[in-house]
What does this fold into?
Amino acid sequence: MKRTKVLIGFLLVVFLLFIVSCSATYTGVQSKNDQEKRLTVSTSFYPIYIMTLNIVKDVPGVDLVNIAPLQTGCLHDYQMTANDLKKMENSDILVVNGAGTESFLDQVIEQLPELEIIEASRGLELINDNPHIWVGISGAKAEVENISTCLAELDPAYAELYLRNGNEYISRLKALETRMHQTLDGIANKKIITFHEAFPYFAREFGLETVAVIQREAGSEPGARELQETIELIKNTNVKAVFAEPQYSPLSAETIARETDARVYRLDPAVTGEMEADAYLKTMEKNMQVLFEALK
Ligand SMILES: [Zn+2]
It folds into this structure.
C-alpha cells in the first residue's frame, strides 16, 4: 500500500514535471494557417531566432518569424508595436528566452490564451537573475535543448527531426566550446571590464574576472563619477582590456582607454547579426579571437 502511494506520488511528480516543461496544453497544435504554412513559430528576439532556425531546419510547413526588429539588440525597455502584436496573433507557438527578458509580452500573452509558449531558459539556473544565458555556450546549449524538446512535444509528427536538428546544433556548439577552452584557458590575466551586464555567463564559463561593468542601462552613458572610479579601478587592478559591445556607443570605453593603459576591444553578446543559422557560432568564434588578442 505504502509502495503504491510512493509510486503514485512519483508518477504525479513526473507528470507535473512533464506539464510544466513546455506549456500548459498537450492537445497538439491546431494550425491557424493554411496547409502550406502548417505551423507558424515566432521568436521574441535575435538569439532565440538563431537557435530556433537551427532546430526547425527542413521541418515541412514551418514558418519562422522573428518579432522584435533585428536592430533592437537586447529587449531591455523594448516597447512592442502593433506589427509585433499582429505577428503574435498569427503564431501557433512563441519561443521566448524568459527569465524576465520579455516582460513586455506578459499582457499580450494573457490576451492570446491559445498561443503555445516555449521558454528557452526554463529550469536553468540564473546568475543573479541575469537573463543573458545565451551569451555562455553552455547556456546556449541548454536553451537549444529546451526549445527542441518542446517543439518535439508540441508538433509530434516531426518530433524526431526537431530532436535531431537540436542535437546536431548542440554538437556544433560543443565543438566550439572545446576550441574556446583550448584557446582561452591558458591565459594568465583574465581581468576584464565590460559594458552592459551581458557577460556573466560567458565570463564564468571561461574563467574571466569581470572587475567592473560600466553603463548598465542600455543606451545610457556612465556619469563622470562612475567613469573616474572605473579609471582608478583599472589603474589599481592591472586590467589590460575594456570590452565595448558593437550595439553600444564606444565613447566611454575610449575615454577609459585614453586615461589608462587598457585598450578597447569589441565583444559581441550575439543580440544582433546575420539572420543565418551559423551566425551565433561565427560571433562566438570572433569573440574568442578578440579575447585571445586582448589578454594573451
Ligand atoms: Zn542585455
Observations:
- Residues 74, 76, 132, 196, 198 surround zinc ion (CB under 6 Å).
- The mean pLDDT is 86.
- DSSP finds ten helices and eight strands in the chain.
- Strands lie at 39-43, 62-66, 93-96, 116-119, 191-195, 209-214, 241-244, 263-266.
